[in-house]
């Protein structure tokens, strides 16, 4: 009987330890998710920007950023095309800005993209947690 009580107590201890470990892992996962979301909040996707052979995407993005909000200085940003290059398609541009505030400001003023170039049809812009937004001329 003592052996059974000892086994039961041992199992209770193991269950308690597993529960604590699961709580710790869940908390860790939540913190990672929050951190990841904060990082991704700086991202903006711009669609339908023509691809250039000479690689001046950075200049195009800088012009777009200055058109959208000339009062903000966009010195540091990273850009890259998303997806595989296909001659007949325009790949989206992913822009990683310095701060979440810059990305939010860009999203607030996205209608000003029409001023950037009236010849380009169907500009699209997408921010973190946003549904796709089309700007049609």
Largest sheet: 5 strands, antiparallel
Biggest sheet strand order reads 2-3-1-4-5
Amino- and carboxy-terminal Cα gap: 83 Å
What is the CA-atom radius of gyration, in angstroms?
24 Å
Topology-level CATH name of the largest domain: Alpha-Beta Plaits
Order of helices and strands: HEHEEHHEE
CATH architecture of the largest domain: 2-Layer Sandwich
Structural domains: how many? 2
Helical segment tally? 4
What report would you give on this structure?
Helix content is 47%, strand content 15%. The protein is α+β, with helices and mostly antiparallel strands and 137 residues long. The chain folds into 2 domains: 1-40; 42-135, Alpha-Beta Plaits, CATH 3.30.70. A 5-stranded antiparallel sheet has the order 2-3-1-4-5, with helices on one face. A hairpin with a 5-residue loop joins β4 (123-127) and β5. It is elongated. Mean pLDDT is 76; it is low at 131-137.
Q: Could you provide a short overview of the structure?
A:
Helices cover 47% and strands 15% of the residues. The chain has 137 residues and is of the alpha+beta class.
């Amino acid at each position: 009987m003592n052996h059974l009580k000892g086994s039961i107590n041992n199992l209770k201890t193991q269950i308690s330890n597993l529960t604590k470990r699961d709580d710790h892992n869940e908390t860790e996962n939540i913190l990672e998710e929050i951190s990841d979301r904060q990082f991704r909040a700086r991202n903006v996707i711009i669609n339908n920007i023509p691809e250039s052979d000479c690689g001046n995407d950075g200049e195009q993005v800088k012009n777009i950023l200055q058109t959208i909000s000339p009062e903000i200085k966009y010195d540091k940003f990273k850009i890259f095309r998303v997806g595989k290059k296909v001659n007949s398609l325009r790949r989206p541009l992913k822009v990683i800005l310095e701060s979440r505030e810059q990305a939010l400001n860009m999203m607030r003023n996205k209608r000003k993209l029409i001023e950037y170039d009236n010849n380009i049809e169907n500009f699209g812009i997408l921010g973190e947690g946003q549904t796709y937004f089309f700007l049609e001329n």
